[in-house]
């Protein structure tokens, strides 16, 4: 049985071995004590995974001890991590208001909206793939973002980090499968912010500076493959900072499975709330039999709404 400090494991995923690397290499950072990182591995014979993690821990002056874990344990732990991140992110958001039925004309038709299945294509035009970081640093923000996107979209799981260490400068790092590939150092603050603004436009965010951590994601087709872009923007001491993740393949499938699970749980909670409200409505209607028809005129609309919900459920069963 795997013994693990959940909170420490979450911290290690955030700060030592990224979620993408855990998914890609099927590993888990289980604990860190006395500069020894205990690593759970689905396949102890995976030398590529050992070499990858070994490279990271050696730079941090840690030693490495491996331990076998089951595939189900690996999935369960990462599911718990994703749930933890989602809960943490939503903690600052306003709670969902009580379910209410607005007064709508009984003649109003409620139609389920079908979402388009075709994904937009992400077009990336990079002209300096062989150029050095010094050349990239001289490019306008729009061109620089294209070059950065081309690099993190090349293969595997890519990520961009936008960090401000000084008021007048920022730096951009890009990584592949958790390994830093290169760094653009000492970008002037204005150019740095302009690249972040270009990212905001790509992700359909307002250009205005964020006041609290903001996350948005979009799914696109890139070179005939589905990818997910996840952008996080945070207010920092010297201005905005950001992280852009690219998920694809098995990592994208795993992430979307978790999102579907969470949506199902949310839908169940809302259904239970609706059931509670209907019971309350029924109880009050029995207690006050003289209620006018006008006071109950929402019922036909509610009935139509429930019919549409049943229709949606039938469509889900067919998928």
Oligomer: single chain
Order of helices and strands: HHEEHEHHHEEEHEEEHH
DSSP helix fraction: 40-55%
Low-confidence stretches: 92-116
Determine Rg (CA atoms, Å): 25 Å
User: CATH topology of the largest domain, which one?
Assistant: Beta-Lactamase
| Major sheet attributes | 6 strands, antiparallel
How many helices?
Answer: 9
Q: How are the strands of the biggest sheet laid out side by side?
A: 6-5-4-9-8-7
Number of domains: 3
The span between the termini is: 37 Å
Report the principal-axis shape. Answer: globular
The CATH class name of the largest domain reads Alpha Beta
**Mean of pLDDT:** 80
Class derived from helix and strand content: alpha+beta
CATH architecture of the largest domain: 2-Layer Sandwich
Give me the count of strands.
Answer: 9
Strand content: 15-25%
Features:
GMP Synthetase, Chain A, domain 3; 319 residues; 24% strand; alpha+beta; three-stranded mixed beta sheet; six-stranded antiparallel beta sheet; 9 helices; Beta-Lactamase
What does this structure look like?
18% of the residues are buried. The strands form 2 sheets. This protein has a 6-stranded antiparallel β-sheet. The chain folds into 3 domains: 80 residues, Type II secretion system, protein E, N-terminal domain (GMP Synthetase, Chain A, domain 3, 2-Layer Sandwich), CATH 3.30.300; 120 residues, 2-Layer Sandwich (Beta-Lactamase), CATH 3.30.450; 58 residues. α6 packs across α7. The protein is built from 9 helices and 9 strands. It is 44% helix and 24% strand. It is an alpha+beta fold and 319 residues long. About 8% of the residues have low confidence.
């Amino acid at each position: 049985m795997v013994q693990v400090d959940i909170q420490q494991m979450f911290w290690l995923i955030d700060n030592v071995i990224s979620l993408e690397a855990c998914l890609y290499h099927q590993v888990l950072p289980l604990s860190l004590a006395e500069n020894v990182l205990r690593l759970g591995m689905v396949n102890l014979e995976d030398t590529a995974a050992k070499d990858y993690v070994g490279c990271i821990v050696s730079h941090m002056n840690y030693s490495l001890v491996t331990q076998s874990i089951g595939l189900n344990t690996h999935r369960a732990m990462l599911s718990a991590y994703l749930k933890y991140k989602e809960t943490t992110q939503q903690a600052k958001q306003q709670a969902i208001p009580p379910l209410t039925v607005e007064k709508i004309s009984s003649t109003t038709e409620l139609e389920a909206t079908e979402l388009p299945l075709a994904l937009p294509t992400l077009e990336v035009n990079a002209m300096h793939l062989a150029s050095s970081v010094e050349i990239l640093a001289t490019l306008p923000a729009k061109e620089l973002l294209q070059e950065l996107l081309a690099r993190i979209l090349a293969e595997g799981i890519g990520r961009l980090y936008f960090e401000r260490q000084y008021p007048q400068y920022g730096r951009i790092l890009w990584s592949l499968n958790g390994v830093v590939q290169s760094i653009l150092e000492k970008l002037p603050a204005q150019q740095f912010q302009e690249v972040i603004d270009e990212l905001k436009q790509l992700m359909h965010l307002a250009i205005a500076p964020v006041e609290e951590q903001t996350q948005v994601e979009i799914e696109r087709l890139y070179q005939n493959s589905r990818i997910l872009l996840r952008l996080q923007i945070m207010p920092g001491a010297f201005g905005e900072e950001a992280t852009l993740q690219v998920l694809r393949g098995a990592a994208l499938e795993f992430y979307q499975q978790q999102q579907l699970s969470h949506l199902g749980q949310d839908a169940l909670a809302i259904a239970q709330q609706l059931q509670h409200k209907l019971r309350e409505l029924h109880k009050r209607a029995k207690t006050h039999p003289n209620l006018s028809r006008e006071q109950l005129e929402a019922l036909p609309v509610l009935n139509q709404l429930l019919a549409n919900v049943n229709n949606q459920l039938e469509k889900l069963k067919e998928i």
